[in-house]
Amino acid sequence: MQGKTIRFIRRGELVSLGNVPPERTLLEVLREDLACTGTKEGCGEGDCGACTVVLGQADGDRITYRAINSCIRLAHSVDGLALWTVEDLVADDGALHPAQEAMVACHGSQCGFCTPGFVMSLFGMYQNHVRQGHTITRELAQEELSGNLCRCTGYRPIFDAAQAMHQLPTALIDEAALLEQLRAIEPAQATGYMQPRKLQSLLAMRASHPAAQLVAGCTDVGLWVTKLHRQFEQVLDVTRVRELQRIERYEHHIAIGAAVPLQDAFHALIADRPQLKIFANRFAGLPIRNSGTLGGNVANGSPIGDSMPLLIALGAHVVLMSVRGHREMPIENFYTGYRKNVLAADEVLAWIKVPRPQAGEFLRAYKVSKRFDDDISAVCLAVNMTLVDGKVDRISMGAGGVAATPVRAVRTEALLRGVRWTADAAASAARSLRAEFQPITDMRASAAYRSEVLGNLIQRLWLESQGMTHINLEDIRVLPGHEEASA
After folding, report:
1. Are residues 324 and 223 in the same domain?
2. pLDDT digit string (tens) for 308-356?
3. How, if at all, do strands 235-237 and 213-215 pair?
4. How far apart are CA 288 and CA 47, in angstroms?
5. What is the pLDDT of residue 74?
6. Mapping DSSP to helix (H, G, I), strand (E, B) and coil, where does residue 184 land?
7. Angle of helix 447-465 versus helix 423-436 axis, rounded to 10
8. 484 within a domain of the structure (yes/no)
9. Domain residues for 260?
10. Which runs of E-coded beta strand occur in 389-438?
């Protein structure tokens, strides 16, 4: 099928590319069509960060900047946005951008292959923090660069560069002019890659094109393209639907639209439950969280997706919509099998409704993976518990990596409900949890390991409920100058 034209702003100019197939990635367009070879292809699956670019989108009277992985991002998704690659940062007079100059001054490049990706992540940090008058701390640098891997383990000077950018001459973007340019780009109309702006239009398109591939941030669908060589006759992109870009707060719950990026969705959850910050940071590197959406993660339904066990433990519901109306259900009832769900051919997942915290709740979310940052879970467990007079009054438990779908541990919940919370009760719950699921063995972990760890996490929950904190890996802080040893 003939592809539609893509238009975006780059270096202050409108770039227009015609006849781009729906499944073509942004990285392919940059390297092969625009000769932007500074953007590197490393892993082809959003893990290494060598392909990082920055997108700019109009958000009211300002520009939102997001560093994303171009290797798994469909090219059509940037239609109507601003784009920066590493070639775009040097000023017209040849002066380096502070992100580049700081890397040079701090000796942040070794072999150099990963350097363009790091520079683009630093550029995103510069726009989102330095230009807003905020200080980049060591912790912030480690957090926001977690999606960029350096095989030479040169993290210390790169973190130095992140903290040094504010000391260099200021680099400005004429945002008023850029906003005017972005607003002048009219939405394209095409049947190959459909990108509606209104919910009503999305539902009508879904009803008319039930076989179209639904996409949001493409952090999973992009892998189908790069690894499985999938091709799509039609793609229906939900990310520009204005109603689904919102996070709405109500007295008893928050409603997160399916087009809300994971980074923003987690910020909303952390605002109510600060203890989720480290878990949210470990979901993936920042470029993945900037690109992927909570709705997409839930709809994809991977059994090792981290958001679903947490949402199950929080008692979240999903809202499904079509031209026929809407229906709502607990998130654990949404799944019917491995990457299968109850969505009808004309439906889309529109909202995730998350209850607000209740008085006295004790919430913990645990992720076990081979690598602390930027890695996929072997086991994920989230527990939300409320004690009354020492007894378990309310409890909900979500688990990932132990079944064909994200699951709720209903048997173990029933075992604990109404029972006094003691070491013996925790031990019984650990045994129950190990017996409740039959995980598989794969490249990430054996079945026996998963079962053992699942029960061990209940022991950890018990210890933390008694005030113990030094058992947590999250509490370890790497001192400046020791990053290479911890990489």
Report:
1. yes
2. 999 999 999 999 999 999 999 999 999 999 989 999 999 999 999 999 9
3. parallel
4. 9
5. 93
6. helix
7. 160
8. no
9. 193-355
10. 391-400, 407-408
